[in-house]
Amino acid sequence: xxxEECYRxxxxxxxxxxxxxxxxxxxxxxxxxxxxxxxxxxxxxxVRAIAAAGALHVVGLDLAPSAVLxxxxxxxxxxxxxxxADLFNTPSExxxxxxxxxxxxxxxxxxxxxxxNYVSAVKSVLRPGGKLLALFFLDPGLDNPSEGPPxxxxxxxxxxxxxxxxxxxREWLPRATYPGxxxxxxVRLLRRH
Length: 193
Ligand SMILES: C[S@@+](CC[C@H](N)C(=O)[O-])C[C@H]1O[C@@H](n2cnc3c(N)ncnc32)[C@H](O)[C@@H]1O
Description:
Oligomer: single chain
Number of domains: 1
Number of helices: 6
Strand order of the largest sheet: 3-2-1-4-5-7-6
Shape: globular
Strand content: 25-35%
Bound molecules: S-adenosylmethionine
Structural class: alpha/beta
CATH class: Alpha Beta
Order of helices and strands: HHEHEHEEHEHEE
């Protein structure tokens, strides 16, 4: 998938021009505080929402330079930052720097073979005891699931991917979603070992 090309040509159907609706509920519960990383942040809607709610530093990371440039050109809170980088090759200063990672449509964007690398990358940027709050896209609704992205997943697969490095603390159905994603997502709160 050529993400840069998608942003350059404006072919970004996943971008709803607003943060994931579940974020508002998570923030009201006091989640996503301190230093927060948002991998695959796209144009940064989630980063701005988390930063505006009072996290210390929120870093949005994306592979696509155009996504990062567009995110940086928005009216961003002072505690919101954006960096162009590959999640699978993060800068060394990211190591164990974050208290939280917010996952939203990055896990489903990468190839399923890279999920093991996703788990390693998220583990490496979180401090021990740090938390991953993830809105997983279970069912993108493709006739042929191997034709993603987005690539769907399921609870058993998530258990297998994350259980060596994370403890599942809670899971719930999103309290709000983008229109059309109802019943197709799952939220998990995972603590890094
Ligand atoms: C489906 S889009 C979602 C963007 C954003 N979360 C949203 O909902 O608008 C997936 C994003 O992940 C980024 N991405 C894909 N692979 C990545 C990688 N290895 N490292 C960092 N970002 C990546 C893409 O550039 C793209 O912006």
